[in-house]
Amino acid sequence: MSSTIGTLFKVSTFGESHGKAVGATVDGCPAGLALSESDIQPQLDRRRPGQSDMTTPRDEKDRVTILSGVENGLTLGTPIGLVVNNRDQRPGDYSEMSSIPRPSHADFTYQMKYGNRAASGGGRSSARETIGRVAAGAIAEKILKEKYGTVIVAYVSGVGPIDALDMTGENLTREQIDGNIIRCPDSEAAHKMIELVTETRDRKDSVGGVLTCICRNVPVGLGEPVFDKLEAKLAQAMLSIPATKGFEIGSGFAGAKMCGSEHNDPFVQKEGRLGTSTNHSGGVQGGITNGEPVVFRIAFKPPATIGLAQTTSTFDGDPPPLEAKGRHDPCVVPRAIPIVEAMAALVLVDFAMRQSYRRI
């Protein structure tokens, strides 16, 4: 079950980076949902490679096909099969890496765990595995939007040492976020980020970054006590994304430097309901959503595969230099946005379905 997420809305992904195809199976989607490839493709287009100079030049269109679970444009309540064929595989680019585990990549750990691995492109540890997550997440998003009006948007809030202004109080749209190639709505910071990524790419190096995700119109009551708290499942989902190294919700680590009198979110009447005047909790209290926007951040490390020469070791202990070939992102955060949005949707829709069994 290591490739499956969810309790009632279950998603299993399959495929390797340079295999024939990647995809997902969605089990638990309610019957009667209007669904076609056109509902899924926009998010895959935002994730696909070759979008700009900020991304890998691998030429994949990432066109999704619904194999099962839909007839006459409506879901049947049976498993939905989703597949995207790989068209631009170049496993030969990775031939020298078959004997050299790339520094900070999963080559070494997969080999030690299984005694074998897909050496080309990282196999299952490649970000290409996330295509199935994004496709399934688009279905989850549609359910959340139609039933609850939930809107999920993520944006680049940091690249290397450059931080954007806090935009969590703005009613951001995906169109605004996609307004520049780095996907940062703070135009001044975006310009500096693009310069940094370009300079880093030209040195055949890589740089990390931070994404901020905002989930609005999330129903009150999502999340389960103790071990299945909403933030715990969000953290698990986000940290399962390749290259992630950190997760924080609401005030996060900054909250540890505050006093309770400053950090507490007082309750007030707003828009005909009880809400909070501030949102240091990030929309979650006691592991359960309180009706405020769910706000969290995810840190992504610099991509491990770089063209810059590195002295490392083969599996046999020889110390050759490694200059990785292939096509790689100098910074993953612009393309990680739809992945983060998808994983948030998968967690929220699963908890929403679980909550529907709690109350009549």
The spatial strand order of the largest sheet comes to 1-2-3-7-4
User: How many domains would you count in the coordinates?
Assistant: 1
For the secondary structure, the number of strands is 18
The assigned CATH architecture is 4-Layer Sandwich
Assigned CATH class: Alpha Beta
Q: Keyphrases for this structure?
A:
Chorismate synthase, AroC fold; alpha+beta; five-stranded antiparallel beta sheet; 18 strands; 26% helix; single chain; globular; 360 residues
How is this fold's topology laid out?
Elements (H helix, E strand, L loop, with lengths): L3 E2 L4 E6 L5 E7 L9 H11 L16 E3 L3 E2 L2 E2 L4 E6 L21 H8 L15 H19 L2 E9 L2 E2 L10 H4 L9 H16 L6 E8 L13 H10 L4 E6 L10 H4 L3 E4 L2 E4 L7 E2 L2 E2 L4 E7 L9 E2 L9 E2 L10 H23 L5
Antiparallel strand pairs: 1-2, 2-3, 3-7, 4-7, 5-6, 8-9, 8-10, 10-16, 11-16, 12-13, 14-15, 17-18
Helix pairs in contact: 1-3, 1-8, 3-8, 6-8
Structure description:
The chain is an alpha+beta fold and 360 residues long. It has one domain: Chorismate synthase, AroC fold. It is 26% helix and 21% strand. The chain has 8 helices and 18 strands. The strands form 6 sheets. The chain has a 5-stranded antiparallel beta sheet. The protein starts with a strand and ends in a 5-residue tail after the last helix. The model has no long low-confidence stretch (mean pLDDT 92).
